[in-house]
Amino acid sequence: MRTKQETQHFSHHHALVPLEGEELNCYGCKTKIIEPFHGCISCDYFLHESCLKTPRFLRHPSHPQHSLTLIPTPTYSSRSFLCDACGCEGNSFSLSCAECDFDLDLYCAALPTALELREKHEHVVTLAFESPHSIICCDICGKNINPKSWIYYCESCDFGVHLVCAAQHKRESTKKNEKEKQKDTNVESSQRDETEEEKEDRERSGNEKQNKKAKAKDKNSKKKNGKEKKGKAAKVENFQRDDEPEEETAEDHGKSVSQEYQKMLMRDMENQLILQAMDNANDYIGYGSTKYYYY
Asked: How far apart are CA 228 and CA 222, in angstroms?
C-alpha cells in the first residue's frame, strides 16, 4: 500500500518516494539532480520534480499541427532519438509526434519563447524554430549555427545565438547577479553588525560614565559626611573641654596660694588698723571702756 508521499509514475513499475541529499542523475533528462527529487532506491531510478510532473500530452508552438506525447524510452530501433530543436542525440524522456517523427528533449521543450541577454545584446531575443538564413554565425561563440536547429534571434539587429550559448550566458548572468546580491547582503549585514557594535559601545561607554559619576558622587558624599562627622566631633570635644575644669599647674597653684596669703595679710592689716583706731579712741575717752578683740 502506497503512502501519501509516494508517487506512481507511468515510466517505472515501482512507486517513487521523495528523496534528498544525494547528487544523482535524473533518468528523464540525464542531468544532475541537486534538489529534492523522487526515486526508487532499489532500481536506482530517479527523477527531477519537474520531470516527474511533465504532462503526458503537450501542445507546443514548434509543432502546432499535432500534440506531442511524453515517451519514457525512445521507440526507434536505435533506442535513441535526435532532438529537432538542438540536434543532440537522446535516449531518455522525449516529447514526440510518431506521425511526423518529430522529437524534443525535455530541456528544449521547456525553453522560454523570449530571453534577455543584457550583457550581449540590448534587445530581447526571441526563440526561432527555423534559421532566418542558410548560413548564420552565433554572435556569442562565433561558430556556425545548424540551419535546421532552433536559435534565439533579434530580427531588427540580425543578432542570433545558439540555444546552448544563450542558456549558458543566462546561467552565468544569474549566478553573477546572485553573487552580487549575496555580496550586498553581506555588506548590509556587516554594516548592521558594525552599527549594533557601535551602539553597544556607546551604551557601554555611557554606562561606564554613569558608573564613574555615581562612584565620584558617592565618594564626595562620603567625604562630606566624614567632614561633617569630624566637625561635629570637634564641636562636642570643644564643648566638653569648655565644661571640664582646667587642670591647675604647679606654677598656677603657687600663684593662687600667694594671692590667698596676700589677701589674708591684707585682712590682718585691716583688723590691726581697726584695733589701733579703737585704742586711740579709748585714750581719748578713757581706758575702762576699751574692749580687746583678738583675731
From this structure: 10
3-state secondary structure of 76: coil
Confidence (pTM): 0.57
Single-letter amino acid, residue 195:
T
How, if at all, do strands 151-154 and 159-161 pair? antiparallel
- Give the mean pLDDT of 58-72: 94
Per residue in 222-276, pLDDT tens? 666 666 656 655 554 554 555 445 555 666 666 666 777 777 777 777 777 777 7
Q: What DSSP line would sit under 107-143, residue for residue?
A: HHHT--SEEE-TTT-SSEEEEESS-SSSSEE-TTT--
Q: How far apart are CA 92 and CA 97, in angstroms?
A: 15
Measured in whole angstroms, how far is the alpha carbon of residue 189 from the centre of its chain?
6
The answer to whether the CB of 221 falls within 8 A of the CB of 214 is: no
Q: What is the mean pLDDT of residues 62-81?
A: 92
The three cell numbers of residue 242 are 569648655
CA-based nearest residue to 85, from 76, 98, 71, 95: 95
Average pLDDT, the chain: 79
Cβ-based neighbours of 221, under 8 Å, separated by 6 or more: none
Phi-psi region of 242 (alpha: psi -120 to 50; beta: other; left: phi over 0): alpha
Select the more confidently predicted residue: 102 or 48: 102
Residue 170 grid cell: 543566462
- Cα 183 from chain centre: 16
> Residue holding cell 528533449?
105
Residue-level pLDDT at 85: 94
At 1, the pLDDT band (50, 70, 90 cuts) reads very low
What are the structural domain ranges in the chain?
1-52, 54-110, 112-205
User: What are residue 95's phi and psi, to 5 degrees?
Assistant: -105, 115
70 is written with which cell numbers?
511524453
Q: Which residues pair with 144 in a beta bridge?
A: 137
